[in-house]
Amino acid sequence: MPRKNNPQETVERILNASMKLFHEKGFDNTSMQDIVNASDMSKGAIFYHFKSKEEVFQAAMEVQYKHVENVMFEWLAELKGLSAKEKLITLLKRNVSDRELTSASIDVAVIGLRSPHLVLANMRGNVMKSAHLLAGVIREGVEDGSFTTESPQECAEVFLQLFNYWCDPFFFTCDMPTVKKRLLFLQKLMKQIGVDILTDEIIALTMQYTEDFYREVTKHG
Fold it and tell me: How far is CA 181 from CA 49, 88, 152, 196, 211, in A?
């Protein structure tokens, strides 16, 4: 008997072909028929898994987020023995320095430049998922004395929204001096609420990351 297609492999094939199309043609200029053709699969096989290209993009974002989450858990496992504050500072430094994560984010950003509504639609879900992980480490910090906040979950949500979006010129258009002013404000805010994790080194790394990131996005966009 012929071997049946592996559903997971089929989905991966669809997502890989779709993201390549979204990157090259733009999301709005890509049709489901384009995805069918690029995947070299039947229309029935595509629509069995996804009813629209919006569903395809959402699934691709879920895969990317899951990968980032797994990387974060791996990093945390390597940092056993450190205080929660030391863990979060290390995670932030790695997050803005890791080239593999940056490469995947560039692909999404290129698509987002042409269709910003796609990225905006994913903002809330991604913040809430990441905040859950961050809040857990902040609670650990409250227990070990490295943090003093009484609201770990809210603190995590505010930090991620400001750091990932308000300090990002893609979402809130601004020049690099303004990005630095916002990062310095966020640094002061985090100190005041008892979660002092945004160091001068991380601000410098974030500034460099932002400049490099959008230089690459513009080049590919």
Answer: 45, 22, 25, 17, 15
